[in-house]
Amino acid sequence: MKLYLVRHAIAEEGADDDARALTKEGVARFRQQVALLERLDVTFDRVLHSPKKRAVDTAELLERLCEGDFEVTPLLASAPTQRLLDACVGEAVALVGHEPHLSTLLAWLVLGEKVAGKVELKKGAVACLDGPLAPGQMQLTWVLPPKVARRAGLD
Length: 155
What we know:
CATH class: Alpha Beta
Mean pLDDT: 94
CATH topology: Rossmann fold
Strand order of the largest sheet: 3-2-4-1-5-6
Distance between the termini: 29 Å
Low-confidence stretches: none
Radius of gyration: 14 Å
Structural class: alpha/beta
CATH architecture: 3-Layer(aba) Sandwich
Number of helices: 5
Shape: globular
Strand content: 15-25%
């Protein structure tokens, strides 16, 4: 399976963490990421996203790359669990969420341990993992930081 970990794009500051939307800059930069993903022929069978507004907004920008369902799950707004892995049904699934949960998930799937701080996904970054969906069984194949798409000048 291919699993894509997508950190939400740049969001507004605010006291109500759940309601923070993407900024205009966040939308523009993430559209560049989507254009680059499209050039790389990345598509998803399914997109799961956190219920927080900034993750919802980011997931919506992935719509043209998704051939299947979008689903909101509170499992992406907290530390990764086996229940989250069980929800990843398909050959190519994107998970749109937050730090430090996504980098902890990445470490768990690649190293077999839930350790935070070993990898940092910048806002709007996408990481691709490949292999069996089990702790310690996946391989990190690439990470696409947002500055790559900006430097490529994609819109």
